[in-house]
Amino acid sequence: MSTETNPIFEADFIREMVRQMRAVDTYGIYNGWSAEKILDPFVLTKEKKAEIPLVGAPDEETISHVKCLYNAISVLIEKECKLIGRAAGASDPRRLWPRPDYRRQTGGD
Q1: Is 22 exposed, middle or buried (0-12, 13-18, 19+ CB in 10 A)?
Q2: Please, are residues 22 and 30 in contact by the beta-carbon 8 Å criterion?
Q3: Rounded to whole angstroms, how far apart are CA atoms 78 and 70?
Q4: 93 in any annotated domain
Q5: Where are the beta strands (DSSP E) in the chain?
């Protein structure tokens, strides 16, 4: 089924997934590719699933695909909530904005 006739490719999530995949494409490989071809690695058939090793670390491509998935989800959540998210590890604002006068301004220790 082509991308022109399939309404799933008009969904916000699919559009964002394509956008995220194009964002990590540093060499321009995805230029001119259809959304269907770009998202093909995310569709697992029984044969593809059987080829995935159960033991060992995932390869860089798989990690990149997982990051694209989570980034797409977070962008849509931010779009819906009108709030910008922040990494959980960056809970201390002193790590984000190291200003010498931070303690004096906030009255904190």
Answers
A1: middle
A2: yes
A3: 12
A4: no
A5: none
Is 65:73 a contact under the CB 8 Å cutoff? Answer: no
pTM (2 decimals)?
A: 0.69
CB 48 within 8 A of CB 41: no
Range of the domain at 46: 7-86
Burial of 35 (0-12, 13-18, 19+ CB in 10 A): buried
pLDDT tens sequence for the chain (109 residues): 555 678 999 999 999 999 999 999 999 999 999 999 999 999 999 999 999 888 888 888 888 999 999 999 989 999 999 888 665 544 444 444 444 554 555 555 5
Q: What total number of domains does the chain contain?
A: 1
